[in-house]
């Protein structure tokens, strides 16, 4: 449970790579040892009777320490995150309160208090018409995104998608979507295609690239097919790529 909570926070803050799955190694080892008991009703590994209570006492403390460490890491990661995620913060602090109850030995009251707490918050919740919340976008995130677009020109990669761009920016997919929607008023495809169309316009009128066909221009700008390029280009300019090139040469 503890690594799963940490992965949840990583998903909404920075995102996680496949290498981070090593956090589940203890759970995997525990599962391997319990499979024979589940299937064959026999223990793969057992301790002498005199050591079993000691081992059980140690394991009970290890589980609490593990939960404490992962919750602490989750809070630390959330505090360093530039975006404001109040619901995730409330969730973590609620878990901290339940941990304190659990560690104090008042286990039987933890669930009751959680139910009453959630019920109290639900009663206080007023009816309202939902409306989009404009989260302030940190300037450094915009600067990093514009650097990827203008200097590194990552949009020319036809395989570029939302998760890949979020990985390059070292933020979560959720935060990148918020950045594009609230900071630029566009979704991912609209934002990327704006840069691709701008580059395509330059290439169509460039003498250095006069040898390229329309399909070649499309590939250079980051489109993966001529049909998509023509449709997107005409929607943005009102002209097909060939008509744009012809009108530019006439001027």
How is this structure best described in words?
The protein is mainly alpha-helical. The protein has 2 domains: 2-124, no CATH class; 139-250, Homeodomain-like (Arc Repressor Mutant, subunit A, Orthogonal Bundle), CATH 1.10.10.60. It has helices spanning 2-13, 25-40, 52-80, 86-103, 107-124, 139-150, 162-169, 173-184, 188-204, 214-221, 226-237, 241-250. The longest helix is centred in the first third of the chain and has 29 residues, at 52-80.
Number of strands: 0
Radius of gyration: 27 Å
Uncertain residue ranges? 125-133
Q: How is the biggest beta sheet arranged?
A: none
Mean pLDDT: 78
Label this structure with key terms:
251 residues, mainly alpha, Arc Repressor Mutant, subunit A, 12 helices, 69% helix, elongated
Short description:
By secondary structure, the protein is mainly alpha-helical.
Topology of helices and strands:
Elements: H1 2-13, H2 25-40, H3 52-80, H4 86-103, H5 107-124, H6 139-150, H7 162-169, H8 173-184, H9 188-204, H10 214-221, H11 226-237, H12 241-250
């Amino acid at each position: 449970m503890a690594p799963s909570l940490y992965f949840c926070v990583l998903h909404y803050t920075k995102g996680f790579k496949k290498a981070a799955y090593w956090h589940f190694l203890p759970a995997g080892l525990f599962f391997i040892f319990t499979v024979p008991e589940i299937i064959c009703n026999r223990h793969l590994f057992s301790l002498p009777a005199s050591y079993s209570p000691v081992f059980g006492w140690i394991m009970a403390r290890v589980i609490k320490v593990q939960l404490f460490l992962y919750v602490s890491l989750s809070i630390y990661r959330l505090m360093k995150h530039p975006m404001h995620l109040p619901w995730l913060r409330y969730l973590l602090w609620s878990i901290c309160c339940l941990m304190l109850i659990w560690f104090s030995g008042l286990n039987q009251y933890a669930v009751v208090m959680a139910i009453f707490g959630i019920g109290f918050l639900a009663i206080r919740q007023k009816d309202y018409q939902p409306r989009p919340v404009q989260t302030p976008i940190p300037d450094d995130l915009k600067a990093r995104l514009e650097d990827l677009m203008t200097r590194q020109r990552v949009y020319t990669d036809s395989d570029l998608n939302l998760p890949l761009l979020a990985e390059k920016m070292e933020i979560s997919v959720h935060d990148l979507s918020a950045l594009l929607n609230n900071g630029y008023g566009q979704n991912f495809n609209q934002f990327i295609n704006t840069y691709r169309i701008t580059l395509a316009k330059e290439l169509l009128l460039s003498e250095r690239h006069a040898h390229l066909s329309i399909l070649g221009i499309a590939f250079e700008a980051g489109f993966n097919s001529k049909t998509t390029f023509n449709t997107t280009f005409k929607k943005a300019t009102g002209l097909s790529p060939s008509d744009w090139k012809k009108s530019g040469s006439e001027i």
